[in-house]
Amino acid sequence: MFVVKPVPAFADNYIWLIINPRRHCAAVVDPGDAAPVLAALERERLVAVAILVTHHHGDHVGGVLDLVAARPAPVYGPAAETIPGRTHPLREGDMVELPDLEARFSVLEVPGHTAGHIAYYGHGMAFVGDTLFMSGCGRLFEGTADQMHASLGKLAQLPPTTRIYCAHEYTVANLRFAAAVEPDNADITDRLAYSIALREMDQPTVPAPLELEKRTNPFLRVNEPTVRDAASRQAGRTLARGAEVFGAVRRWKDTFSSTPQM
Ligand code: ZN
Ligand code: FE
Fold first, then answer.
1. Per-residue model confidence as pLDDT tens digits over 130-174
2. Which long-range contacts (CB under 8 A, 24 or more apart) does 5-10 make?
3. 55 is catalytic
4. Rounded Cα gap, residues 139 and 144, in angstroms
5. Which one of the listed residues 56, 117, 149, 168 is annotated catalytic?
6. Residue 55 Cα to ligand 1 middle (Å)
């Protein structure tokens, strides 16, 4: 019953519109910029009934105040972070009830990228901000590897058909790294080819089902022997704990160049 549309912003951000077409209204997720959102609401003849923020970074909140000045709406966001214009602070287990949209989302605290980062889950969809990317995950700006590992573990427990909506188009670069970690993983090779084709047609690679992430995302695969062995080789010592493997893969990715090594 919902139609979810991306509003591209900046170089590679997606601001998501969760639309109830029958009621001509929408929730706006992470409006880093107001202008493209206002244009989309105008074009689609939609009333904004809520703004859902995942974390405090400027590319996710930069448009909130301009947006509510033009189209007043409640602003939901993490209680543990400073969010401009926030009217509804949220914590783990809270419910976001949006009767106009006929939607409700539960709140998951997923620290790691930032200390107070949250995700919204409902109706078979998860809006995860900069926590879980397609075949990747967010950088650790404020949290620890242990925290991010636990946060991804929490998201991994959602139903396998859950569609994951992340906030950046990083998929092709992430899959090049994933292919370096697991060169023999055919799901990764196939998804890389398909994602390159989508980008050549200017189509988003987001969303994807959680089940596909589990087969192609090295950060969700730290308990697989292939990933553990590759991370151990990279670290120069034998890694055992999932969180240790996660930390090693995250550090590896931080310095990985996606240009082919000649
Ligand atoms: Zn961010
Ligand atoms: Fe971001």
1. 999 999 999 999 999 999 999 999 999 999 999 999 999 999 999
2. 5/40, 5/44, 6/204, 6/206, 7/36, 7/37, 7/40, 8/36, 8/169, 9/33, 9/36, 9/59, 9/63, 10/59
3. yes
4. 10
5. 168
6. 7
* Residue 57 is among the residues annotated as catalytic for this protein: yes
For 126, the token pair is 């998860």
Given 30, 33, 56, 59, which residue is catalytic? 59
Distance CA 49, CA 67 (A): 12
Catalytic entry in 30, 33, 56, 113: 113
Distance 202 CA to ligand 1 centre (A): 23
Q: What is the per-residue pLDDT across 199-257, written as a single tens digit (0 to 9) for each? A: 999 999 999 999 999 999 999 999 999 999 999 999 999 999 999 999 999 999 999 97
Residue in this structure with the two tokens 């919902």, named with its chain if needed = 2
Residue 128's identity, in one-letter code, is: V
Known catalytic residue at 123: no
Buried b (16+ CB within 10 A) or exposed e, 147-178: bbbbbbebbbebeeebbbbbbbbbbbbbbbbb
Ligand 1 centroid to Cα of residue 185, in Å, is 29
Helices (H), 26-139: 34-44, 58-61, 64-70
